[in-house]
């Protein structure tokens, strides 16, 4: 379904109201705030195990409106994300890259400010794919990750933020402490919160 929300980047003055969630690819949804008229940062959000991409995106629309950021939510190819080092021929990697390319052709994205953000298994995959493709993702945000597959070399200019509850009953905070010990170079800040709820963590 066509919408004025996805005006081409060359026509920033085009009408953009109302802003709605768009199904831009077989496995991806996007949201462009109506107030955006020029290049804006892109945040790729990755749901947790058994999650739904559209529902996950809906949780961040208010924040996107407030901060002037474009959202892209991609559905994992299986019940959850691949638990191995990301590769170009992997379906999840291909789907994420294809969705970014499709959205970039339709919305005014600032390519130098692309963030990948995830929760739980989505956080684990955000760390893995983010570190694997630092040229694509300059910032990584991970809420309650359980694992991460780091490349042999980590981009020291990439920004990584990890938040985890000290009382998480499913994924122990000790996992994150071990992860941080193994990540040398990036400026990592560990934030312990009293809740694993994504919306509470990101707004605090």
UniProtKB/TrEMBL annotation:
Residues covered by the Phospholipase/carboxylesterase/thioesterase domain: 80-174
Keyword Signal belongs to the record: yes
Any single Pfam family the record assigns to this protein: Abhydrolase_2
Stored Gene3D superfamilies: alpha/beta hydrolase
Keyword terms of this UniProt record: Hydrolase, Signal
Protein name (database record): Phospholipase
